[in-house]
Amino acid sequence: MNKEQVKGRVKEATGTIKEVVGTVVGNDRLKVKGQVEQTVGEAQAGLGDLKNTIDNAS
């Protein structure tokens, strides 16, 4: 696992927590912020996965 993968997975988890907390307390802004953070984390982890695949192919 490379740094991008780890950072992306952490960002996804943080986003999930924010989304759940936002839903529970009724804070739509926090909920949306969590959803955005999840999406960014997924993209970052995907980039890390791609880098890992390229490195392994070499």
List the helices and strands and how they pair.
Elements: H1 3-25, H2 28-57
- If helices are DSSP runs of H or I spanning 4 or more residues, what is the number of helices? 2
Low-confidence stretches: none
User: Radius of gyration, Cα only, in angstroms?
Assistant: 14 Å
Q: Give me the strand/helix succession.
A: HH
The percentage helix is over 70%
Structural overview:
The structure is a single chain. The protein has 58 residues and is mainly α. It has one domain. The chain is 91% helix and 0% strand. The protein contains two helices and no strands. Helix 1 packs antiparallel against helix 2. The longest helix has 30 residues, at 28-57. The protein is rod-shaped and about 50 Å long. The two termini are 16 Å apart. The mean pLDDT is 96.
